[in-house]
Amino acid sequence: MRGGSAAEEGTMYIGIDIGGTGVKMVLVDAKGALHGFRSFRTGSSAQAIENGIVDSAGALLASRRGGRHSLRGVGIGAPGQIDTGRGIIISSPNIPAWVRYPIATRVSALLGAPAAIENDATVAVMGEQWLGHGRSYRNWIMLTLGTGIGGGAVIDNAIYLGRSGSATEFGHTSIDYRGRPCPCGGRGCLERYAAAPAVVRLARRGLRTHPESSLHGLMQAKPLSAALLYQAARGGDRFAMHVFETTGEFLGIGIAAFVNIFNPEAVVIGGGLSRAHRFFMPSLRTALARHALPAFRAGVRFHMARDVVRGAALGAAKLAVDRFS
Ligand SMILES: [Zn+2]
After folding, report:
1. pLDDT at 165
2. Same fold, 6-125+310-324 and 136-304
3. Confidence of residue 65 (pLDDT cuts 50, 70, 90)
4. What is the CA(171)–ligand 1 centre distance, in A?
5. DSSP per position, 277-309
6. What are the φ and ψ backbone dihedral angles of 260, each rounded to 5 degrees?
7. 6-125+310-324: which CATH number, 3.40.50.2000, 3.30.420.40, 3.30.70.260, 3.40.710.10?
8. Does domain 136-304 bear CATH number 3.30.420.40?
9. Which end of the chain is more exposed for a tag (fewer CB within 10 A), N or C?
10. Spatial separation of the C-alpha atoms in residues 251 and 259, rounded to whole Å
11. CA 146–ligand 1 middle distance (angstroms)
12. pLDDT tens profile 277-325
């Protein structure tokens, strides 16, 4: 990293985190200082997403006070199968319109700066490594709990990518060989038990036998979601707390396997569901104690991701800093 001159201080990077429901964008300098944040709903067409990216980038760059600045590069994190070398989304489960879609070239042309793309899980790890708890460790893993369960492993300070650039599919690790079928073709995948839709499903089934739960009232105003469950648990709802407790047990079984494989110094948990950590961490630790090798689990530290909302977008910006500065 260079820096110091007025021109260098005005050099900015945009990070874009394209999720299934929302797109988040940050404007940062080469040191990771946040100069702006925007988000918009993903929409279903490629055109809608491109328009949103152009509008948000314009707003981000316009809102920056104080004269000289230039956009040096753009980093993108997206779900799905990605050819990072050519900057192409081969297919994306949440955005069916993107088939062999040359997103890096498109975004580069739209924003007038070079663009690079990585897997969404990888940029989340990059963000935590750059500005979060990852700064304190050389060997650690991260799980992102959201619509699915993604993650990454950092080995000797390097993110492990595997052959095709998307290793450590923690969510598709089986915790029950006779378990629930998964769209991936497997059975008993962790995310079928502990990602947000599974938590909601668990709650929906249990609610029938828990007429006393405050969720029945809360659901008059809002549909049942992991966020609503969290709201109920914070309000002291025993049933909602129990749902998170059960989820923690599933997570603990899965994480025990990852601890046995990676022998990490720390496990960082991100994604929207991580907000409910105080309700799932106790049972997670109990399950970990039962399933992980004692010598490995003893020293493992747990952290919640530093910035659940913007972490992946910040990691995408780091991709641009690394690639284009
Ligand atoms: Zn699966």
Report:
1. 77
2. yes
3. low
4. 7
5. HHHHHHHHHHHHHHHS-HHHHTT-EEEE-S-TT
6. -65, -30
7. 3.30.420.40
8. yes
9. N
10. 12
11. 14
12. 999 999 999 999 999 999 999 999 999 999 999 999 999 999 999 999 9
d(CA 321, CA 115): 10
Contact 119, 113 (CB under 8 A): no
| Token pair of 282 as six digits | 């106790």
Spacing, Cα 23 to ligand 1 middle (Å): 24
Q: Give the per-residue SS3 of 239-270.
A: HHHHHHHHHHHHHHHHHHHHHHHHCCCEEEEE
> Which strands form 140-145's sheet, in the order they lie side by side?
158-159, 149-155, 140-145, 266-270, 301-304
> Residue 16 is encoded by which pair of tokens?
């874009």
Ligand 1 centroid vs 291 CA: distance in angstroms?
21
Nearest-CA neighbor of 108 among 156, 148, 139, 76?
76
First to last CA, the chain: 7
Contact, 75 vs 116, CB < 8 A?
yes
**Tokens read off for 2:** 């260079």
Ligand 1 centre and the CA of 168: distance in Å? 12
For residue 280, the CA-to-ligand 1 centroid distance in Å is 22
Give me ligand 1 centre to Cα 90, in Å. 19
Task: Give the model confidence (pLDDT) of 149-203 as tens digits.
Answer: 999 999 999 999 988 777 899 999 999 999 999 998 999 999 999 999 999 999 9
Please list all protein residues whose beta carbon sits less than 5 angstroms from ligand 1, which is an ion: 172, 182, 184, 186, 189
Domain positions in the chain are 6-125+310-324, 136-304
Give the Å distance between the CA of 94 and the centre of ligand 1. 15
pTM given for the model: 0.91
The rounded distance, in Å, linking the Cα atoms of 158 and 45 is 35
pLDDT of residue 2: 46
